[in-house]
Structures are given as C-alpha cells and as structure tokens.
C-alpha cells in the first residue's frame, strides 16, 4: 500500500489511477479541475495551477511516490515534488523529454539512430538546415508540441516564409522519413536497472493523431529485435525509472527513433486487455519498486482504435450508440469521462483481442464505424 501522487488529470492519469487502486494504492491527483478524467476515479484530488507552489506542496506532502502523465510540467514543480517524495520520471528525464533538441542529441550521442535533424531558429538558419537534412522536411517546435501541433511540412524554401517565426525561438528541422510503418516500444525500468519491454505495436496516424495500434507489428524478427533493443538502450541512456515509450519509423530494415515519452502512452492502451500486465500496472510496479510484470500477449493479436470527439457528430453533443459498438464480438469500450467532446480530442478507445490480427483490426474499425 501507500499513496501515489499523479501530476495531471487526463486519461493517462485516470487509467493509471484505476490500475494503482486495484493494486491497493491510494492515488492523489494534482490538476487544475476536479472535472478532468483522473480525479473522477482517484481517492483524492488537489486542485491548483501546476506552478502554484503552495498547491504543489499541499499535494506532494501527501505522497510516498510521485509520477506524472504528461511532460510539460514546470521544472520548479517537479523540483518541489522531489523534495517530498521520489518522483518518476525525474526532473532530469523530464528536461530531456520536454525538449526535442535535447532529446534527439542525447539519444544520438548515445549512438542510437534518430531521424536526421538540425536546430533552427529563424528563416535563415532553416535555409542552412535544409541543405543538411534535405527537402522536404518537417519543422517542429522544440518544446510543447503534441498531436502534430506546431509542425510544418516544408516542401520548398518558399513554404518556410509562411512560418510564424516569432512564435517560437527554437525549432527542429527533421528529414521527412518515407517510412513503411510506424512502431512503438514501451519499456519499463525499475530503480535497480531491471527492464522489461512490451511487444512492438504498429501504429497508424491520421492527421498526426494516433488512430489505430495493433500487435503483432508486421515487421521482420530482425526489426523487432532492433526496435526492442533501441528502446531498452534509450531508457538506460536517459536513466528512466517507470515507463519510456519510444516511437520509431521503420523503413525496410532500418529503424529510426522519432521521439520518446517517459510515461504510459496511447499506443499501449491495448495492453489493458492484451498483455499479462497492462502498461499502467507496469508503471505502478516500476515506480513502487515492485517486481516488473510479464509483458507477453495473452493471445496472438490485439488492436486498439481511438475515439475522438468526432464520433459525437458535428454538434459534438449527442452521445454515440455505445451499445452498437460493443455488440461487435470481443470489443471492449473505454471512455475517459471528459465533460465536453471536441473534434480531434481523445475521448476514449476500443480494444479487441483475438487470434488473428486482421480480424481484430476489422472488429475495432467496424465498432467505431457503427458510432457515426
Ligand atoms: P505526439 O507527441 O502526440 O505523438 P507530436 O506532436 O510530438 O505528437 P510527432 O510524433 O513528432 O508529433 O509527429 C506526429 C506524426 O507525424 C508522426 O507519428 C508521423 O506520422 C509524422 N511525422 C513526424 N515527423 C516525421 C518525419 N520526420 N517524417 C515523416 N513523418 C513524420
Ligand atoms: Mg510528441
Ligand atoms: Mg509522436
């Protein structure tokens, strides 16, 4: 037992709290509103701005161990948490994961393969960078982007004139990778350095937002081994305790890291039904110093489809026909309890576990289609 603190009130915090509670822990959530997904299932909630030091201390003083569900947390907040209880990921891991340039350099300096990149600060430095990484390229803000927000595809130098250069002072120009597939590996690491990685997930994105994840990934054994060993090395390089998700591009037999996230990840939601230990239960184990759980699939295949606010219809008001979706054999529904549906907002997901990959993918897609 004991009390685990969770900074952030979103769906990752919510599913973590459910796993932690079922393992006998109390969970205190720290977030800006009691109406967010996580407080609804937590034992306690401290409401406050993440940079309000009085609220941070009120929260942290109640916890035996602290974790978080998103990276963009002020460094001062994490430093304050660390004064009260062990905090995972640490301030140091977070500083790396908050900044694409620092993240990519750290991984590259450790000899890990990352998509070719260059630092950019303005139009002129983009011109120089484009000679190094080539065109087309993807321009990303160094900090605080998610779901593709803050990204520009630059086909010609002319396109770079449309960028609002004043909005940000540090950017990453990244080579456009013509990948065959995108995959991710989630690895858990405990404070004594033990690691356990989940099977590789194959991910499909639509409009830069994860749409479908599936296992097994349709990649060679060689690529699978490479991807899993890259993920373990990345966790060791960054000295992560807890989970690290490594998003990768696969281009024939080559694996390149896109980015990492030191927390549970959307591509791992299918582990709730598909693996002996879910990513959330594994995160609890890793940060609480418990033995890591078995990560194997409980059956041969699984698929997950995200439910965005879009399925609520154009007015985003009438709730979809959930009964229709879960009537598809084997499909499980997860809803995050968000108060308001918006286009592009992650509201829930559907999972199906079975023996045949194309069948389980078809099942979640059909279940989702019944909603619109
Ligand atoms: P999130 O953190 O929500 O995953 P993000 O804003 O950090 O999103 P990225 O993961 O960098 O965004 O990019 C989102 C998607 O855009 C990728 O999963 C991939 O499909 C595409 N993408 C990003 N960078 C590249 C690249 N260099 N080459 C080709 N496609 C890319
Ligand atoms: Mg990201
Ligand atoms: Mg990403």
Please tell me about this protein's structure.
This protein is an alpha+beta fold and 372 residues long. It has helices at 11-22, 53-60, 75-84, 91-97, 100-109, 123-133, 221-238, 271-274, 279-287, 322-326, 357-369; strands at residues 3-7, 26-31, 44-47, 65-68, 117-120, 137-141, 151-154, 171-175, 181-189, 195-197, 201-206, 209-215, 242-251, 254-261, 301-308, 331-335, 346-354. The strands form three sheets. Strands 9, 10, 11, 12, 13, 14, 15, 16 and 17 form a nine-stranded antiparallel β-sheet that branches. β11 and β12 (209-215) form a beta hairpin. The mean pLDDT is 96. α1 (11-22) crosses α9 and α2 packs parallel to α3. Helix content is 29%, strand content 27%. It has eleven helices and 17 strands. It has three domains: 3-87, 3-Layer(aba) Sandwich (Rossmann fold), CATH 3.40.50; 116-175, ATP-grasp fold, A domain (Dna Ligase, domain 1, 2-Layer Sandwich), CATH 3.30.1490.20; 181-369, D-amino Acid Aminotransferase, Chain A, domain 1 (2-Layer Sandwich). Residues 115, 138, 140, 145-149, 174-177, 182, 205, 208, 247, 258-259 line the site of adenosine-5'-triphosphate.
Lay out the secondary structure:
Blueprint: E1 3-7, H1 11-22, E2 26-31, E3 44-47, H2 53-60, E4 65-68, H3 75-84, H4 91-97, H5 100-109, E5 117-120, H6 123-133, E6 137-141, E7 151-154, E8 171-175, E9 181-189, E10 195-197, E11 201-206, E12 209-215, H7 221-238, E13 242-251, E14 254-261, H8 271-274, H9 279-287, E15 301-308, H10 322-326, E16 331-335, E17 346-354, H11 357-369
Parallel strand pairs: 1-2, 1-4, 2-3
Antiparallel strand pairs: 5-8, 6-7, 6-8, 9-10, 9-11, 9-13, 11-12, 12-15, 13-14, 15-17, 16-17
Helix pairs in contact: 1-9, 2-3
The structure holds adenosine-5'-triphosphate and magnesium ion (2 copies).
């Amino acid at each position: 037992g004991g009390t685990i603190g969770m900074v952030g009130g979103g769906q990752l915090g919510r599913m973590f709290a459910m796993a932690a509670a079922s393992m006998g822990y109390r969970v205190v959530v720290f977030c800006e509103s009691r109406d967010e997904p996580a407080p609804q299932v937590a034992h306690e909630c401290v409401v406050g701005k993440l940079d309000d030091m009085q609220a941070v201390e009120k929260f942290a003083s109640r916890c035996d161990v602290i974790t978080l569900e998103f990276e963009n947390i002020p460094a001062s907040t994490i430093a304050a948490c660390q004064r009260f209880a062990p905090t995972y990921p640490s301030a140091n891991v977070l500083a790396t994961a908050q900044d694409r340039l620092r993240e990519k350099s750290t991984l590259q300096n450790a000899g890990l393969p990352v998509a070719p990149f260059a630092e950019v600060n303005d139009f002129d430095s983009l011109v120089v960078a484009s000679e190094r990484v080539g065109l087309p390229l993807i321009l990303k803000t160094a900090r605080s982007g998610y779901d593709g927000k803050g990204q520009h595809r630059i086909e010609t130098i002319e396109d770079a004139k449309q960028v609002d250069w004043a909005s940000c002072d540090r950017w990453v120009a990244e080579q456009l990778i013509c990948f065959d597939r995108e995959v991710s590996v989630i690895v858990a690491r405990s404070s004594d350095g033990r690691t356990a990685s989940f099977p590789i997930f194959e991910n499909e994105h639509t409009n830069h937002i994860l749409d479908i994840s599936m296992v097994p990934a349709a990649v060679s054994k060689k690529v699978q081994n490479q991807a899993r060993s890259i993920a373990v090395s990345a966790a060791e390089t960054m000295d992560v305790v807890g989970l690290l998700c490594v998003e990768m591009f696969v281009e024939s037999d080559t694996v390149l890291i896109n980015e990492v996230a030191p927390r549970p990840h959307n591509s791992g939601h299918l582990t709730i039904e598909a693996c002996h230990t879910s990513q959330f239960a594994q995160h609890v184990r890793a940060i609480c110093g418990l033995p890591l759980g078995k990560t194997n699939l409980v059956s041969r295949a699984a698929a997950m489809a995200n439910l965005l606010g879009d399925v609520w219809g154009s007015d985003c008001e009438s709730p979809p026909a959930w009964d229709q979706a879960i009537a598809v054999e084997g499909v499980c529904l997860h809803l995050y309890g968000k108060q308001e549906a918006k286009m592009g907002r992650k509201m829930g997901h559907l999972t199906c576990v079975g023996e045949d990959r194309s069948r389980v993918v078809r099942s979640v897609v059909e279940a989702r289609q019944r909603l619109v």
